[in-house]
Amino acid sequence: MDYKQILEMAIDSEVEAYEFYTAAAARDLDPSLKKIFTELAEEEADHKRILEAFFKNPEKPLKFKETPDYKVAETVDKPALSVSMKPADALALAMKREEEAMDLYNVFARASDTEEQKAIFLELAKMEQGHKTRLEAMYTNAAFPEVW
Questions:
Q1: CA distances, 82 to each of 24, 85, 141 (Å)
Q2: Distance of alpha carbon 78 from the chain centroid
Q3: Which CA distances in Å does 32 have to 8, 77, 90, 101, 102?
Q4: Burial of 137 (0-12, 13-18, 19+ CB in 10 A)
């Protein structure tokens, strides 16, 4: 698999996430949940644009900021999308999806044949970890308001 195939797969993943969040926002949900899912969809669209730009210009390095992994997502079950879900459950669902994407890219990095391939997958894992970290902070605030 070359870098173009890797990026096509990553772009498809961002499109899938965008479509999921857009469909979730279109459901008959609480307005605050609609807002969360709409913002997540917009973020996925931004990441698709970043990946497409790298696809067109691979000389420009693909670099994402390293973020801490709080491992909050690993402590919760993945809830099902439903019209009766609470904001904390919506955030849990989103952070579990980001965790799954991050884990998948890390598996691909470990299975890579070349250092170039591995580096691309590791950068994509960092991108997903950044999403996960942001969602974990939001989840912690929503699920445990007593800490405020």
A1: 9, 5, 21
A2: 14
A3: 33, 22, 10, 25, 26
A4: middle
* Residue 42 to residue 23: CA distance in whole angstroms: 13
* H-type alpha helices, 27-114: 31-56, 87-110
Residue with tokens 């969360």: 36
And the tokens for 88?
A: 């904390």
Which has more confidence, 9 or 148? 9
Q: How remote is the C-alpha of 72 from its chain's centroid?
A: 14
The two structure tokens encoding residue 22: 């857009």
Reading the block at residue 112, the tokens are 């890579």
Q: Per residue in 69-118, pLDDT tens?
A: 999 999 999 999 887 888 889 889 999 999 999 999 999 899 988 898 89
Domain 3-58+78-143: give its CATH code.
1.20.1260.10
For the chain, the domains span 3-58+78-143
